[in-house]
Specification:
single chain, about 80 residues, alpha+beta, Glutaredoxin, about 35% helix
Length: about 80
């Protein structure tokens, strides 16, 4: 399985929405073993600055940016599938 990174901001409504969708999808036993690192951009600025993205939420699988901005369930599901 490949590592997932989620860059987000705590007070961002789109980030909260993406996290809620992700948590619901992770209830599927298929995704139980996935490694997801959640990086709160304002608290981990040095780490966040090492990645090339403009909007949050942003998902990376390994070091490849998969999607960013306002995300749909389909896009988040793609992230999980790519990590398998």
């Amino acid at each position: 399985m490949k590592a997932i990174k989620l860059f987000y901001l705590e007070n961002c409504p789109y980030c909260r929405q993406a996290r809620a969708i992700m948590e619901e999808l992770l209830k599927n036993p298929k995704y139980q073993g996935l490694e997801i690192t959640m990086i709160e951009e304002s608290r981990q600025k040095e780490l966040a600055d090492q990645y090339d993205y403009y909007y949050v939420p942003t998902f990376y699988v390994e070091e490849e940016k998969i999607c960013e901005g306002i995300l749909t369930e389909k896009e988040i599901l793609e992230v999980l599938e790519r990590a398998l």
